[in-house]
């Protein structure tokens, strides 16, 4: 045991966050608020037959992260098929670059962004020719 099976992204504006993650990554959402006793939307991140996990967007219970502060939690990275197209969606929908695209030589392209709620996340496009 000990395998990661669920994630939660804390958000200030649920509708804004659902729009951001839905449009950037194609996630769909299910209202699980009655179970959680607070605004809580299950995030379906892809086909259950593919590797990966589902998670949720939950109403933030404290102060939002401040720009420039150290990461205080996990940074999740999403696999993408087209790094540049995904970055364009992120920026168009109000996300910001935290660490620009860089090569993991012989493996992939990687970069980090801030979502509309101030949370850090990464995107990763496998590419054996990255350098």
Automatic annotation (TrEMBL):
InterPro entries: Anthracycline_SecMetBiosynth, Glyas_Bleomycin-R_OHBP_Dase, Glyoxy/Ble-like_N, VOC_core
Domain VOC: residue ranges: 3-126
Gene3D superfamilies on file: 2,3-Dihydroxybiphenyl 1,2-Dioxygenase, domain 1
Domain of life according to the entry: Bacteria
Pfam families on file: Ble-like_N
PANTHER family (UniProt xref): GLYOXALASE-RELATED, VOC DOMAIN-CONTAINING PROTEIN
Entry protein name: VOC family protein
Taxonomy of the source species: Bacteria, Bacillati, Bacillota, Bacilli, Bacillales
């Amino acid at each position: 045991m000990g395998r990661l099976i669920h994630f939660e992204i804390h958000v200030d504006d649920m509708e804004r966050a659902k729009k951001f993650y839905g449009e950037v990554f194609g996630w769909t959402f299910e209202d699980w608020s009655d179970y959680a006793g607070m605004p809580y939307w299950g995030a379906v991140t892809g086909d259950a037959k593919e590797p990966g996990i589902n998670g949720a967007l939950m109403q933030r219970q404290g102060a939002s992260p401040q720009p420039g502060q150290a990461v205080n939690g996990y940074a999740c990275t999403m696999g993408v098929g087209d790094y540049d197209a995904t970055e364009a969606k992120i920026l168009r929908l109000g996300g910001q670059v935290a660490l620009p695209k860089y090569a993991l030589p012989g493996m992939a392209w990687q970069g980090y962004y801030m979502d509309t709620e101030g949370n850090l996340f990464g995107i990763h496009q496998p590419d054996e020719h990255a350098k």
